[in-house]
Amino acid sequence: MNLITDFLKQSKNYSVLVVGETITDEFIKVLYQGQSMKSFCPVFQLTSAPAEQQLGGAYAIYRHLKDFVGKIDLISNAPEEIVKTRYIDANDGVKHLELNKFDLKRKDEIKVDVSKYDVVIVADFGHGFCDQVNINDGFHLMCQTNSHNFGFNRISKWKSKKKKSICIDLREASLQINHRISSCTDDIMKELYNYELSTEHLFVTTGKEGSVYTDGKNISRQSSFKTQIVDTIGAGDAFFGFSALCTAMNVPDDQKLIIPSLAASLTTTWLCNEKNVNPQNLTEHANKHLHAGV
Asked: What is the architecture, at CATH level 2, of domain 2-34+44-292?
């Protein structure tokens, strides 16, 4: 368990800045009542359960890392400016409908000097906040593809900037090189690394298959740690935050994927962003899975 104890000890020496969109996830419980007879639309009944709100996106990354590092700051939008309201079934939690609100108030340029921090993380969810960021080279980047920005928030929009690391998933990787990827072979990883990314380190998450890392020369892989999955929302954000920190800490290449993968799998054991990764639950999770080898 030296990897975990060394990580916990050394990470306290690092100062971190997280830049990006805070997304408020709102959950409203409903009961399905059937199909309207006069129009083709489902009908739901609101329950008496109060709406539940959680802060995700860049704030979730900030929250995951805050107990691990010596100093951490956040530059983000107000929580009420980006809200994703999900109407979920009161019985089984299935999402029936999602309504999104995007109403960013800040219009001025946001200047970020990466030299003031050991680690600067930019979490671009494609809702406009990061388009205002003026940042110098040397940060860690994630550009998320979602239903709102599909095809328009590719990682190469930041190609003029030199990045410390980049983290993408399979769908984002497919969009980047203009053809569908079902798995990350060594050849695909080499193609991705050399295609308008301008980065030192590349991480690709592949869902159930795990994750892949390359520095342009060597390639390493990590299978997913098996858990009883409750919800996968936010797992990629946790992976990204810890991959950036591991990169800054110069964790050996063959171990760079372990802590991010543990953090990501841990977040799937609760609903969305209702909890955060901390030293205690990460250590317990690592003891269970690294010892068992699963």
From this structure: 3-Layer(aba) Sandwich (3.40)
